[in-house]
# Entry
Amino acid sequence: MEWMYLFIAGILEVTWAVFMKMSDGFTKMLPSIITGIGYIASAAFLALALRKLPLGTAYAMWTGFGILGTTILGIMLFKESITLPQAGCIFMIAAGIVGLRLLA
# Structure
């Protein structure tokens, strides 16, 4: 169950980060509210996962989910660009997440 908590925490990590971008510096009410709720919920699910998972593994995966998700959604929603070297580095982060899960 702790892996499911960590996965949910990762999704919520991406959610609050994307809505923070949409909030335009907290000048738009609804995205700002979703940012706050998502942030708290993400931390809560991370805390649940940490009851059984090692801190280093869980935190690395949580932030890795955030990096992957926000990069993908940044490209899709905000037309952000990515260079080939950046894509290679993000691929290594993804490989690290998979490795941590398989070896944990």
Observations:
- Residues 55-78 form the longest helix (24 residues).
- The helical segments are 2-22, 29-49, 55-78, 84-103.
- The radius of gyration is 14 Å.
- The chain has a mean pLDDT of 95.
